[in-house]
Amino acid sequence: MIRRDFWSVAFAVAWRVLHNVFTTPSLFLPGMIFPLFFFTAFAGGLSRVDNIPGFNFPNGYTAFQFVFVLLQSAAFGGVFTGFGIARDFEYGFARRLLLAAPRRSGIVAGYALAAAGRWAVTATILTIVALAVGMQVGGSGIDLVALYGLALIVNLAGTLWASGIAMRLRTVQAGPIMQLPVFLTLFFAPVYVPLALLNGWLHSVASVNPATSFLEAGRSLISGSTDHVSLAFPLAIALAIGLSVWAWRGLRSAERAAL
Amino acid sequence: MSALAQVGYVARRSIVRTSRQPANIIFPFVFPTALLAVTSAGLSPATRIPGFPSKSFLAFFLAFPFIQGALFATMNAGTDLARDIQSGFLNRLALTPLRGGALIVGQLGGIAVLAFVQNCYYLTVGLIAGVRLESGIVGGIVLIILATGVAIAFGALGAFFALRTGSGEAVQGLFPLLFVGLFLSSMNLPRNLIEQDWFRTVATFNPISYLIEGLRSLIITGWNWEALGLAFGFAALLAGAAMVLANWALQLRLTRT
Amino acid sequence: MAQAHGIEAEGLVRTFKGDITAVDGIDLSVEPGEIYGFLGPNGAGKSTTVHMLTTLLPPTSGTGRVAGFDIVKEGPKVRSAIGAALQEAALDNLLTGREHLRLQCALHGISRAERKVRAQELLERVGLTLAADRKVGGYSGGMKRRLDLALALAHRPTILFLDEPTTGLDVQSRSALWGEVARLAREDGVTVFLTTQYLEEADALADRVGIIDHGHIVAEGTPAELKAQIGRPTVEAIPADGATPEAVSRIMEQFGEPTGGSAKGVAVRLEHGVQDLAGIVRALDAEGIKLENLALHAPSLDDVFLAKTGRSLEGAAEEEEAEVEA
Fold first, then answer.
1. Using CA atoms, how far apart are residues C265 and C132, in angstroms rounded to an integer?
2. Chain-wide mean pLDDT for chain A?
3. I want to staple B217 with a disulfide (CB 3.0 to 4.6 A). Which of B221, B243, C314, C316 is the partner?
């Protein structure tokens, strides 16, 4: 049974991060503006792509790209939280948390809660903008809840990955190490066209990339189907579990160094 | 000491500093290469859109890393100069006979050398991946010259921002704006194939579109004098304006008598 | 090495936006070969004065001549004659110590062959030969300051400006820097303009001291002259158990007028100075009075600052910080 002090630590850490983020434009705006920008650039600039023979997505290119941008914002929302963790370690604040918290695993949970909170705001704004520009939604309420649920798990995975790096390296210089694998994982997937239209090495890589199943499941859900969902959710949960071990071991590494 | 010698010393220092910051080397090489690979592979079906000007999306998209590399040049020039301002090193230089103009030109000289190396790398990657330049070897040389000129122009912009703000964070904040400028262009599709009217309008008014199209013309078309003229023209305009602004900002910053 | 010209300033004023007057009419004159200490709390205008005299900031009004050249009209000539180690160490963390020196020498037009020799000579002089080829990012604070001094001397200036050169240094590094500054003035005849907020630094190094507060000089002279201006030394005697303070007072008052001391002690300001101390000891001994402590307090530069401004130098520093925070 998880003790109360785990949650008290988690909520305290989450409150601090969210308070800092939402009161500091330079922290808040990039995480919000970049997804909107990518959505605009991809859905707006590449809409002709759905004219490619064989492109059969029923709900239009806007919805097709919305799913990618939603998952991208979720993953990078976790990475941005990792930057904050690295900064906390580099400037000494994390030591204060480690000394004060009765249950240190609550610290990581707190960062994860904060990441989810930040992403919730981004996802809301992104959804409003997408609907305002006429995105067609074929899925039911349950489908959409599942879509956002999947994105939330991706957000958690991104946070755990980045926090593991941050706690091991404990410097903001680790930013590119957090970002690059996430970026490559997302982009080695059917970003612009469905998997069936890819060829060559990218098709081979995308076929085994877990991000592909998340994307395809998300696109199915937004168009009212459940294809790929039975693979995507277990995969996402397994990824999150694996990365929580990674993050936990990162915490241990930080403890050994800090105290 | 002559101005040229001063430029040489400052340029040398700029190169040495960049070479000692691994992130400044890895990022401009790895990131654009990765984006080139994934985007050209991911959008390769786009060549089947009626009217698409090339059978190879890689050839079409190869202009992108040159421009993205130029953006990294902006950041490098700007953050290095901002660091000099914040640490007081600029004051140290101000107490020597170093001319103000030599400081900027020297900084950009260092950027030019690095951009030249980057651009040769991008072109080599493209050639190894199977791209053939329609403009031939001479076109390849013109491509490197144009791309290096673009990097110098963006580097001058970064220097202006650094001198005006004195802050590395402000210079870093410039990167998303330039990145947006890069995406809201004819980077991914030719302008005539952009479906959304507003996007096509923005791309038409965006000078970065012409820089990309000039570089691209050397790769997929051959000798398109209009595209080249526009690209060189915009690069020269940007470089000239940015140098004037940077010099002005330097006069404000360096209040020495 | 004798020089003809030192530093002269007349009515130097510098104001900033928002009607902030950082320097409010500075007149000073520094003789060639002299070490001039510019003492004052944070925010008094020391660094602004240095920036004007080193041509980095034009004065709002007033004139100045450094090494015989006008600081406004002949900026490049001034810069060729001076070296400056300013408040920030102003180093490039990515360059080595040797690379810094070579760049500095190159920019001052020193030939390639001479650069090498000069760099090595300066590295030896400031004790950085072992660290010369390490990047400055790995240097300690003291090492950075020493490199800063070496860079200021690269082109053999006749006048050296040091802006709070020992702030943040440990005692050993500070002593080493003092030694080098004193040697430069004594052996090489370099004129040194040194700003500091440390009393002991001004006392130890400076031939003459100018005390600045709120942008103008409130006192100027040799340390001894300044201290003598505000008075004679005081002596305080703390009686041991069994000795009455009244008995001690009766004897002490023969040597000077009573003055404030600690709660347990009796203090007088000596009429004839330090030479009265022996008399006090003999008189107390003759009466069989035992003391717990006998202390002589000579006036300090802080006492001078207190007399001239109504507050102590340390208190002034805390006040400035509070103003800044507010």
1. 55
2. 90
3. B221
Whether C107 sits inside 8 A of B20 (CB atoms) is: no
- Alpha-carbon distance of C276 to C281, in angstroms, equals 9
Give the closest residue to C292 by CA, choosing from C236, C237, C240. C240
Nearest C-alpha in B relative to A188: B38
Instruction: Say if CB C88 and CB B88 are below 8 A apart.
Output: yes
User: In the Cβ-directed half-sphere of A198, how many Cα atoms lie within 13 Å?
Assistant: 23
> Domain count of chain A?
1
B residues 133-192 near A, CB within 8 Å? 169, 173, 176, 180, 183-184, 187-189
Cβ–Cβ below 8 Å for C80 and B84: no
What tens digit of pLDDT does each residue of C231-258 get? 678 888 888 876 688 888 888 888 888 8
Residue-level pLDDT at C34: 94
| Chain B to chain C Cβ contacts (< 8 Å) | 78
Do A and C make contact, counting contact as 3+ CB pairs within 8 angstroms?
Answer: no
**Same domain, residue pair C189 and C244:** no
The full DSSP string for C180-213 is HHHHHHHHH--EEEEEES-HHHHHHH-SEEEEEE
**Judging by DSSP bridges, how do beta strands C234-239 and C291-297 pair with one another?**
antiparallel
Domain limits for position C47: 7-221
Query: Can you tell me the mean pLDDT for A210-219?
Result: 97
Nearest CA in chain B to A27: B173
- Say yes or no: B3 contacts chain A, CB-CB below 8 A: no
* CA angle, C16 then C17 then C22, to 5°: 25
Q: Is the Cβ pair B96, C104 closer than 8 Å?
A: yes
Q: What is the pTM of this model?
A: 0.79
Is residue B28 within 8 A of residue B124, CB to CB? The reply is no
Name the residue of chain A whose CA is nearest to B42's CA. A192
Residue B189 CA to residue C193 CA, distance in Å, equals 65
Strand ranges, E, within C172-318: 191-196, 208-213, 216-221, 234-239, 256-259, 266-270, 291-297
Q: Which of C48, C29, C8, C10 is nearest to C214 (CA)?
A: C48
For residue C2, tell me if it sits in a domain.
no
Are A51 and B50 in contact (CB < 8 Å)? yes
Q: CA separation (Å) from B88 to A36, A158, A211, B168, C148?
A: 39, 39, 47, 13, 12
CA nearest neighbour of C91 among C21, C41, C36, C138: C138
The answer to whether C95 contacts B13, with C-beta atoms less than 8 Å apart, is yes
Query: How far is A31 from A19, CA to CA, in rounded Å?
Result: 15
State the smallest CA–CA distance between residue B10 and chain C in angstroms. Answer: 9
Asked if A246 and A161 count as a contact pair (C-beta separation under 8 A), the reply is yes
Interface test with B, best of A26, A32, A39, A52 (most B CBs within 10 A): A52
- For residue B146, what is the DSSP state? H
Q: Which domain holds residue A231?
A: 4-258
- Whether residues C145 and C269 fall in one domain: no
| pLDDT above 70 for C314 | no
Burial zone of C233 (CB within 10 Å; 0-12 exposed, 13-18 middle, 19+ buried): middle
Which CATH number goes with the domain that contains C115? 3.40.50.300
The yes-or-no reply on A/B contact (3 CB pairs or more, < 8 Å) is yes
pLDDT of the residue at C308? 78
- B-C interface (Cβ pairs under 8 Å ≥ 3): yes
- CB neighbours of C17 closer than 8 A, spacing ≥ 6? none
pLDDT at C316: 57
pLDDT at residue number C326: 44
Q: Are residues C73 and C52 in the same domain?
A: yes
Q: Do the Cβ atoms of B38 and A190 come within 8 Å?
A: no
Q: What is the number of structural domains in chain C? A: 2
B173 touches B91 (CB < 8 A): no
Nearest to C9 by CA among C77, C84, C78: C78
